[in-house]
Write a structure and sequence with these properties.
- The structure is a single chain.
- This protein is of the alpha+beta class.
- It contains eight helices and six strands.
- A hairpin with a 5-residue loop joins strand 3 and strand 4.
- Helix 5 packs antiparallel against helix 8 and helix 6 runs antiparallel to helix 7.
- The chain is flat, with a radius of gyration of 23 Å.
Length: 200
């Protein structure tokens, strides 16, 4: 059985350049439904974690809308694979190494497979959560900026500054943007600049 707690999807909606609503997807969806037919500007919604645009099915009753957005995803069973040790989740695949690599692996305790698994785990640990969070923030902020600010002056330079980790340049280039869009882009980008912690 899957974990009892499910991550709640939070989103931010914009009416043109203005912030319309932010919070759990179900609450924002109901707010959108209330104004969808009378809105004078496009209403766009973005996932707060990925920066991707999301579309809600606003048909049916409020209860039906909330149910669609709060149902846990069905976990797919992993497909059965051939070789390997399925109970441990081990998958057999071919790798190619030079003779000196095989020679070194052969002399390691536990054999080649154990040693390779340890090396991979050590490399994964070195690529710590902070780096992963920074990459995720860069991608999320850039997706949002491309969708909402792609035609604005300074977008391309700001995106380059974002990926370069240049917080000061990113903030300077984003300053002229509409306030709500600018602030959301900066909020998404914040983990990318965590090592340069300065007040926004």
């Amino acid at each position: 059985m899957r974990g009892m707690e499910q991550e709640i999807l939070t989103v931010t909606a914009f009416a043109g350049d203005r912030l319309f609503a932010a919070g759990p997807a179900s609450e924002v969806a109901l707010a959108l439904k209330a104004v969808a037919e009378t809105a004078e500007v496009p209403l766009l919604v973005f996932d707060d974690r990925t920066g991707r645009q999301v579309d809600f099915d606003l048909s049916g009753t409020d209860k039906e809308i909330v149910a669609r957005l709060t149902q846990p995803e069905i976990e797919e069973k992993p497909e059965r694979r051939g070789a390997g040790r399925p109970k441990l989740g081990v998958v057999a695949r071919e790798i190619t190494l030079l003779p000196r690599h095989w020679q070194w692996l052969a002399g390691q305790p536990g054999g080649a497979s154990v040693t390779l698994r340890k090396l991979v785990d050590a490399a994964r640990a070195a690529d710590d959560a902070g780096k992963a969070a920074a990459r995720g923030a860069q991608q999320a902020a850039d997706r949002f900026m491309a969708a909402m600010l792609g035609n604005r002056p300074g977008y391309e330079e700001a995106a380059r500054a974002l990926y370069a980790g240049d917080r000061d340049r990113f903030f300077a280039l984003s300053e002229p943007w509409p306030a709500d869009l600018r602030d959301h882009a900066r909020r998404l980008a914040r983990p990318a600049f965590a090592s340069q912690a300065k007040p926004a």
